[in-house]
Amino acid sequence: SPSPGDTSVLAGLYGPAEAKISKELPDRAAMEVLLRPKVGLPGVVERSREQLLRQTCEAVVLGVLHPRTAITLVLQVLSDAGSLLSCCLNAACMALLDAGLPLTAVFCGVTCALDPDGTILLDPSTQQEQEARAILTFAIGSGERKVLMATTKGSCSVEEMQQCLAAAQRASNTIFQFYRDSVHRRYSKS
Amino acid sequence: GRLLCGPGLRRSGAGLLVTKCGLLRHRAAGGGAYWVDSQQKRYVPVKGDHVIGIVTAKAGDVFRLDVGGSEPASLSYLAFEGATKRNRPNVQASALGVGDLIYGQFLVANKDMEPEMVCIDSSGKSSGMGIIGQDGFLFKVSLGLIRKLLAPKCEIIQDLSQLYPFELVLGMNGRIWVKAKTVQQTLILVNILEACEYMTAEQRKQALAKLSGN
């Protein structure tokens, strides 16, 4: 069970709903992501994360089945203890599964931190993130563990990035199994 | 025969793509069909579905109905039993106002066009469709519960009919309209139907036993 202080994000998905004429797309659904921080107004960091989340979600949602509609994903940060972006990615995917939107694949988010001496840490805490030389976040798709999104803060070599990616792909199996277990629990009640 | 690919499955290249999570179901009759039974609350209009719509506007020759999807549906004045341009029976434009409930089926429903509803079937008979009367209570449940209630010999409906006599209209868009003799009985039925989503059969029977005991 998560203890207070762990990173947690609440996700709400609305759609396919009516879109504003200015925002509707003629051939597919228009996806919008809103990320609300725990305190304060959304700033530039939230905006850039919203775009990363939006691009990842658009890659998996079958928007062509719902043209001229809007799909809105609202994420509210409840607590931040590190690895926030990957937590948002996981929450977004679970919201998509729960709402029953048609998807071509599921995805999960994994954060890697590179120590100054080159050690790879998965799902770093806030302390570890501050001490790290580079922080890499990957969105891994479920089919063949392809990379849907990658973002880096800091600098690292190409070999280090490949190592982090391999570690993230291995870690994604645990998260996908968690998705399976949650969905299984939900459908076993009906 | 041909194998049918139902909701939740999609043909992609030579194989099938699963697009929703849920229970995979199979029907062997008539060539066979596979589909995924998934739970969702948002309705997407499908041709042939019987739904409950709420009239939101009258525009020229059509009504605009809210069916819970991404677009309002249209319903022509003439799509009722026995309606012609000259002969407009009183079940018609004059009696039907904004806010009324209509039970009808989709004639046209696809992703590219605005959904169109009618209140007659292919032979021109109304077969239970049309304006839903005054009083009663309209509420929304998940689509999975509606499918469970519409199954033949549904236990929930049988148990409830032992309790009080009532009128029930089920819309595939997740809307249910109930009317019993008194307001209190109507509200009790509404609460039981809403709770049925999360109750097991034993819990439901216990709740009903407590109510019929009162």
Automatic annotation (TrEMBL), chain A:
Q: Where on the tree of life does the source sit, at the highest rank? A: Eukaryota
**Domain named Exoribonuclease phosphorolytic: residues:** 5-102, 106-170
Q: Which GO terms describe its cellular component?
A: cytoplasmic exosome (RNase complex); nuclear exosome (RNase complex); nucleolus
For biological process, the GO terms are: nuclear mRNA surveillance; poly(A)-dependent snoRNA 3'-end processing; rRNA catabolic process; rRNA processing; U4 snRNA 3'-end processing
Q: Which UniProt keywords apply?
A: Cytoplasm, DNA-binding, Exosome, Nucleus, Phosphoprotein, rRNA processing
UniProt subcellular location: Cytoplasm; Nucleus, Nucleolus
Q: One GO MF term, please?
A: RNA binding
UniProt lists the family membership as follows: Belongs to the RNase PH family.
Q: How does it assemble?
A: Homodimer. Component of the RNA exosome core complex (Exo-9), composed of EXOSC1, EXOSC2, EXOSC3, EXOSC4, EXOSC5, EXOSC6, EXOSC7, EXOSC8 and EXOSC9; within the complex interacts with EXOSC3, EXOSC8, and EXOSC9. The catalytically inactive RNA exosome core complex (Exo-9) associates with the catalytic subunit EXOSC10/RRP6. Exo-9 may associate with DIS3 to form the nucleolar exosome complex, or DIS3L to form the cytoplasmic exosome complex.
User: Record's PANTHER family?
Assistant: EXOSOME COMPLEX COMPONENT, EXOSOME COMPLEX COMPONENT RRP46
Q: What is this protein called?
A: Exosome complex component RRP46
- What organism, scientifically named, is this protein from? Atrichornis clamosus
From TrEMBL, chain B:
- The name under which this protein is listed is Exosome complex component RRP40
Query: Which GO BP terms apply?
Result: CUT catabolic process; exonucleolytic trimming to generate mature 3'-end of 5.8S rRNA from tricistronic rRNA transcript (SSU-rRNA, 5.8S rRNA, LSU-rRNA); nuclear polyadenylation-dependent rRNA catabolic process; poly(A)-dependent snoRNA 3'-end processing; regulation of gene expression; TRAMP-dependent tRNA surveillance pathway; U4 snRNA 3'-end processing
| Domain K Homology per the UniProt entry, residue ranges | 136-184
Q: Which GO terms describe its cellular component?
A: cytoplasmic exosome (RNase complex); nuclear exosome (RNase complex); nucleolus
Q: Which protein family is it in?
A: Belongs to the RRP40 family.
> What keyword terms does UniProt attach to this protein?
Cytoplasm, Exosome, Nucleus, RNA-binding, rRNA processing
Under CDD domains, the record lists: KH-I_Rrp40, S1_Rrp40
Please state where this protein is localized: Cytoplasm; Nucleus, Nucleolus
What InterPro entries would the database entry show?
Exosome_RNA_bind1/RRP40/RRP4, KH_dom_type_1, KH_dom_type_1_sf, NA-bd_OB-fold, RRP40_KH-I, RRP40_N, Rrp40_S1
Organism in which the protein naturally occurs: Atrichornis clamosus
Report the GO molecular function annotations.
Answer: RNA binding
- One short Pfam name that applies is KH_6
Q: Which residues form the Exosome complex component RRP40 N-terminal domain?
A: 1-39
- Major location (coarse): cytoplasm
